[in-house]
Design a protein that fits this description.
Chain B: Pfam families: DUF2304. Chain B: It comes from Planosporangium flavigriseum. Chain B: Keywords: Membrane, Transmembrane, Transmembrane helix. Chain B: This is DUF2304 domain-containing protein. Chain B: The chain crosses the membrane at residues 6-22, 31-48, 54-79. The structure holds 2 protein chains of 2 kinds. By secondary structure, chain A is an alpha/beta fold. Chain A has a single domain (7-231), classed as Spore Coat Polysaccharide Biosynthesis Protein SpsA, Chain A. Chain A has helices at residues 17-30, 47-53, 67-80, 100-106, 128-145, 161-170, 177-188, 212-231, and strands at residues 7-13, 35-40, 57-60, 85-88, 112-116, 157-160, 193-197. A 7-stranded mixed beta sheet of chain A has the order 3-2-1-4-6-5-7, sandwiched between helices. The longest helix of chain A has 20 residues, at 212-231. Chain A is globular. Chain B has one domain (2-120). Chain B has 4 helices and no strands. Chain B has helices spanning 2-23, 29-47, 53-58, 64-120. The radius of gyration of chain B is 26 Å and the shape is elongated. The chains are: A alpha/beta, B mainly alpha. The interface between A and B is medium-sized, with 16 and 10 residues.
């Protein structure tokens, strides 16, 4: 079905030396036919060396751009090397490589497939302002896309050639722009967006941001991002 | 009279600084033109502070000084906005360069390792 297509797994990483090796090993074990690209976003630790040792192609940004910047470079690499499909996976081990084939398979009927954490699988949950923000985002984007999108800020995604070309040129560097903005952009340009339920695992290292102040800031920033994405030319 | 001397000196100083920066190629012409225009219009006003009173009266502003103050704030706001825009553009340009450098370095590492394996053959 999709076995003849060239697939690139893009893993943006910033100081993920602790977990990146294990993530790459998992992806390569689960998906031996796929190429793995780690975009080192100006890390100060040994992320690049670990990733290279684990068998990934590594491209190193000379300074830290933020996750959106790293992702755009991933898409640019995919575009220049003429990959058919690009899959985004986070470097902290949250995304289970066993779900990647489901995402890629769903590309037969969609241009952008989002791995959604709240769609039944797994036990990921959010509360308070963060939950309000996510509900509002999924409500607005579901309406726009004409399909149920429950997790619009998920970085676990797959897309085909047209969106690879689009994102390589355009993907914003702003916080949350790389998730909300890219989904809105795809919908507004007439691409079909679908979601596939995935189970999220706990991060292998690091702590998720959970303070109420941060959650409120998150709500505010995501609303701004959504608003700008909606009125963008 | 004292005030006039002060304002004239400040206006002339501004012109000298801009000219000097231009001469040393520290300032792109597109910005210099703007500041020279500002300097040239401020110096006459420093000599004749009442010069704008007539214009101010025409558009309902009580005094020329208020008009100058208003225009100055407006100009500075516009310049700040312009600089923010310029910085955003520069960041986008450096981002593109950073991406290209990353890709070139990756390609170079690829070619290097290929060369090494050829040498070993």
């Amino acid at each position: 079905m999709t076995s003849d297509k060239r697939v690139l797994v893009i893993i943006p990483a910033y100081n993920e030396g602790e977990t990146i090796g294990k993530v790459i090993a998992e992806v390569r074990a689960e998906l031996p036919a796929y190429d793995v690209l780690v975009v080192d976003d100006g890390s100060t630790d040994d992320t690049a060396e670990v990733a290279r040792a684990a068998g990934a192609t590594v491209t190193v940004l000379p300074y830290n751009l933020g996750v959106g910047g790293a992702r755009r470079l991933g898409y640019l690499y995919a575009l220049r090397h003429q990959y058919d499909i690009a899959v985004q996976v986070d470097a902290d081990g949250q995304h289970d490589p066993r779900n990647v084939s489901a995402l890629v398979a769903a590309l037969d009927e969609a241009d952008l497939v989002i791995g959604a954490r709240f769609a039944g699988e797994g036990s990921y949950s959010a509360r308070g302002p963060r939950w309000w923000a996510m509900s509002l985002l999924s409500f607005v984007l579901s309406k726009m896309a004409g399909t149920k999108l429950t997790d619009t800020t998920s970085g676990f995604r797959a897309c085909g050639r047209p969106l690879i070309a689009g994102y390589a040129r355009w993907l914003p560097v702003e916080y949350l722009g790389d998730t909300i903005d890219t989904a809105v952009w795809a919908i507004r340009h007439g691409y079909t967006v679908r979601q596939v339920p995935v189970a999220m695992r706990a991060r292998m290292a690091g702590t998720p941001s959970a303070s109420p102040v941060k959650a409120a800031v998150y709500l505010f920033r995501s609303m701004i991002t959504l608003l700008l994405a909606l009125v963008r030319k | 009279m004292k005030l006039t001397v002060l304002t004239v000196i400040v206006g002339l100083l501004l012109l000298v600084v801009i000219f000097e920066l231009l001469r040393r190629r520290q300032l792109r012409e597109k910005y210099a033109v703007l500041w020279i225009a500002v300097g040239l219009s401020v110096v006459p006003l420093a000599v004749f502070p009442r010069g704008l009173d007539a214009v101010a009266g025409l558009i309902g502003v009580a005094s020329g000084a208020s008009l100058v103050l208003f225009l100055a704030v407006l100009l500075l706001l516009l310049i700040c906005t312009h600089l923010s825009w310029e910085v955003s553009r520069l960041e986008e340009e450096t981002r593109t360069l950073a991406e290209e450098i990353a890709l070139v370095r990756t390609r170079l590492a690829e070619l290097d390792s290929r060369e090494i394996s050829n040498d070993q053959r």
